[in-house]
Design a protein that fits this description.
mainly beta, nine-stranded antiparallel beta sheet, 9 strands, about 0% helix, about 55% strand, globular
Length: about 110
């Protein structure tokens, strides 16, 4: 079994969703060296409470483009392609009953 790729390790990124179930929301994601991801909503009713998911995977799929995915404890999987040149993200949020395309903007925090 191969080790999960974590090419975003050590980075903190801010995503603002324009489309999908979290449209209008801004989230900060910190990709930890241990393979976990911590995210929190920065606006709205649920802001401030960080959530840690045990495992994420990320791969560089082209120059300046990362593919990242994680399964949240809520049962949703988020998979997005991040374009660091255009500062855009595109992807999908899904669970066993629902599927949504998502898009938005990307900001590197650290």
């Amino acid at each position: 079994m191969t080790e999960t790729a974590t090419s975003l390790s050590g980075q903190t990124l801010r995503w603002k969703f324009e489309e999908g179930p979290t449209a209008g929301g801004t989230y900060e994601h910190t990709f930890e060296p241990d393979g976990s991801v911590v995210f929190s909503k920065l606006d709205g009713d649920a802001k401030g409470k960080p959530t840690r998911e045990k495992k994420y995977a990320s791969f560089e799929v082209g120059p300046g483009i990362q593919l990242v995915s994680y399964l949240a404890e809520s049962g949703y999987t988020l998979t997005v392609a991040l374009n660091f040149d255009t500062k855009r993200l595109y992807g999908f949020a899904s669970n066993d009953k629902e599927w949504y395309p998502v898009s938005g903007t990307l900001e590197v925090v650290k």
